[in-house]
From TrEMBL:
Protein name: N-acetyltransferase domain-containing protein
Region of interest called Disordered, as start-end residue ranges on this chain: 33-54
Gene Ontology MF terms: N-acetyltransferase activity
Organism field: Genlisea aurea
Keywords, ordered alphabetically: Acyltransferase, Transferase
Key word Transferase present: yes
Domain N-acetyltransferase: 64-207
Length: 207
């Protein structure tokens, strides 16, 4: 379905950072391409951390784990999209979107049998967000979603903050996203601002 969307970039010197590295004192610069070794080092390293842990009355231990290693199953993602009411997209395109993202952050609910009992842990996808980037100046955050059963716990905020932290560590400061009108205030509280410096999000459509 159609959704009202706007671009919400973080407040930053957008055009200044775009110009840096391209023009300086109106003189042309020769930029040497980075070596493959350097490029590999600039890729965000996978991260995994436990955000919360609870013990159920039956002894089962439940953990909510954040990871940024891109380990998201496309079928699990489609099921999560169904839960939040998003229109279905072809699985092949979902897989391509994950594969071509600069960073994919996920939240999994991991349930472990307690009391030293045997059995393997169950892992369930309950949240995801991803970012595309030119690996230099700009990044855009997409597909931020959290299972409705786990909303209201600050998980969406944790996803966005960890994405932003990783992007900033890579020197990427122009960060934008697309937001439904009903969640504008949520992103505003995280530091996003509508149309800073008069910048407008524009979308092509056939006439």
């Amino acid at each position: 379905g159609n959704r009202n969307i706007k671009v919400y970039p973080l407040k930053a010197g957008f055009w200044e950072s775009i110009r840096s590295g391209i023009l300086k004192n109106n003189s042309a610069q020769v930029i040497e391409p980075p070596s493959t070794t350097t490029a590999a080092k600039e890729e965000p390293l996978p991260e995994e951390s436990v955000l919360s842990e609870t013990t159920k009355p039956d002894g089962t231990i439940e953990q909510i784990i954040f990871s940024s290693g891109g380990n998201v199953d496309v079928y699990d993602l489609q099921a999560l999209c169904d839960k939040v009411g998003w229109p279905r997209r072809p699985l092949s395109k979902l897989a391509a979107a994950l594969r071509n993202s600069y960073l994919v952050a996920a939240l999994h609910l991991v349930s472990k049998p307690g009391g030293g009992e045997g059995g393997s842990a169950e892992r369930k996808l309950i949240g995801m967000a991803r970012a595309t980037s030119d690996h230099a100046f700009n990044a855009t955050i997409w597909d931020v979603l959290v299972d409705p059963n786990y909303q209201g716990r600050g998980l969406g905020k944790a996803l966005i903050e960890k994405l932003i932290r990783t992007l900033l560590q890579r020197g990427i400061g122009n960060i934008s996203l697309f937001a439904d009108s009903k969640v504008v205030e949520f992103y505003r509280n995280l530091g996003f601002e509508a149309d800073p410096e008069g910048i407008k999000g524009m979308f092509w459509h056939p006439k």
